[in-house]
Amino acid sequence: MKKIWLLIVALLLTSGCTNITQAKYDRIIANAVSSKLILYDQYRSGYKYYLPKGLIIKEYRDFNEIITDNTNNYFLYVDAVSYYNHVVNDYQVKKKAYYSQEINYEDRFGYLEVNQTAQNKYLIEIMYNYAKIEVIVDKGELKRAITNAINILSSIKFNNQIIAKKMSDEISLFNEVEYNIFKTNAGDSIYLYYSDHDNYEEKQHDSDLIE
After folding, report:
1. Which of 30, 93, 137, 143 is least surrounded, with the fewest CB atoms within 10 Å of its CB?
2. How far apart are CA 71 and CA 56, in angstroms?
């Protein structure tokens, strides 16, 4: 009976109570960040989160993950350093962006920014709860991708003890992290880590964005 109930809850979380295709971006964000449902099925060293239905883990290393829906790759970076240091930063809404929104709910903050590329694709940058996801999609996939991304980010729960230990044991690892989740990168954005035959390397987004 418990398994059936968890399945029902999971379906509600991934599908939402409203039709995603009809919902506005701000309502998609609001529904996700205010959700009281607590589910986890992905466990990492220092954090855990829920992966929405239809997504699979392509690969991960340290605090970087590549998640895919078999069409689009979602690049996830979890910023344990900023979380540990309780860094707070403001986001300024950008009028030139295709869509730009600040996210604030209780003690969590972040932003959603979408920019159109010259190839008629859309770069989504969404930061919330000390983690960030970047993904490039077609226009018709924007709402689904945003829903997937914010559901992942809002479900992340940190393990304070493990984070503190990793900060002391692996300080050299964290010193190498230069990616700033509080800044949107638009045309200069770099996918956090890209895997090619199990070798990680940086891969730059297409720099041609329509402003």
Report:
1. 93
2. 11
Q: How many angstroms from the chain centroid is the CA of residue 79?
A: 11
Nearest C-alpha neighbor of 191 from the set 47, 65, 79, 98: 65
Joined together, the tokens standing for residue 81 give: 């350093």
Q: What is the C-alpha to C-alpha distance for residues 155 and 50, in angstroms, rounded to an integer? A: 6
Q: What is the pLDDT of residues 127-159, one digit of tens each?
A: 999 999 999 999 999 999 999 999 999 999 999
What is the C-alpha radius of gyration for the chain, rounded to an integer number of angstroms? 17
Enumerate the domain spans of the chain.
2-204
Q: How many DSSP H helices and E strands does the chain contain?
A: 6, 12
- What dihedral do alpha carbons 134, 135, 139, 143 form, nearest 10°? -70
